[in-house]
Design a protein that fits this description.
Elements: H1 2-6, H2 11-23, E1 54-58, H3 66-81, E2 86-90, H4 102-118, E3 127-130, H5 136-145, H6 150-154, H7 157-163, H8 171-185, E4 191-194, H9 199-215, E5 224-227, H10 262-270, H11 288-301, H12 305-311, H13 317-343, H14 346-375, H15 380-383
Amino acid sequence: MVVFRLFHSNPLASALTMAVRRAFSRKHIRHYGKNPNRGFCGKPEPAEGWPRRVVSGLQPTGELHVGNYFGALRRCVQLQQAGDDVMLFIADLHSFTSHQRAGELQAHTLQLAAVALAAGLQPERGALFVQSAVARHAELCWLLACLATQARLAHLPQYKEKASTMKEVPVGLLLYPVLQAADILVYRGTHVPVGADQLQHLQVAAQLVRTFRHRYGDAFPTPRALLAEDGSDKIRSLRDPNKKMSKSDPDPKSRILLIDSDDTIRHKIRKAVTDFTPQVTFDPENRPGVSNLVNLHCLASGLLPEEAVEEAEGLTTAQYKGVVAEALCAALGPVRERAAELRARPDFLRDVLQHGATRARARADAVYNCVAELTGLTSPAALRPERSGILR
């Protein structure tokens, strides 16, 4: 980070820098325990006086795996249960950085909505909706794109990694973090559940807030990261524990899908790559495969790593795989069954998404009216006075 390099010549500032680094070091990220509210960071005060609002999104590309469930959906449910106003959207616009088939996209959108509801999300307490149903995402993205720089966006590691594999790089891939910023700011989101690999994208959003504030005025809070405390953003591939679990991995045994049957879960865990040491220990640096199994056990059972290791005392890693598989089956089975019931009711799912979009549009319109006034754009409210009754 640039800020760390700027302070090297000042001893006091260097000490402060080291304190910040330690605060974000891996050893300060605690693991999920038996308290269900320990899956996310503690609830800080509202950012800069703005009402606290959590915004998160998931792409409807491919089948959801346990990383998506534990790292995103369940965290949103936990935050909502803790009293937060949670807006969860299905990020279909983001998915177009790769080729999408219309029929598959629609099916995956409804499947994601079904899983979100099955996981326990209560849309009446926030909003569950499809990103493209709220045009303000794209409109605000254009305004923010005019404040962003190509050099800053092209420097982001995720862009460089993905662009390096493409012969022709779509502009949408470069603007991906700007649309992410618009997703958050159009609702004046104050907090965003993210993994460590998304922190730089959130920093782009914060930078755009500062730039907008400097040029036009105060329209948005600076969004803050809600970092996972439970290891849910560090679930690894079952076949290559040096990589994160991913929808796009060509090996289907690398991930556990939410639609997988109990027998399939047991088979995939049994085939998970570990090492040649039979004892079960938690050492992510030196034993990533076994530690990944411990992490999955903790997430499924609400244990701390030391508690899981204590339970596994006397078991070989092969025997411990059976314990992990049963814990996952018990945690995921009810969600899978409820999601299947909801998926059989597509009209109900569409109604939920439509209601969520109506609520989201009202909130986004309120923010965009403010943006229009500050920037000198024609006010939407002035053109359409019938929409002045805004849900806040």
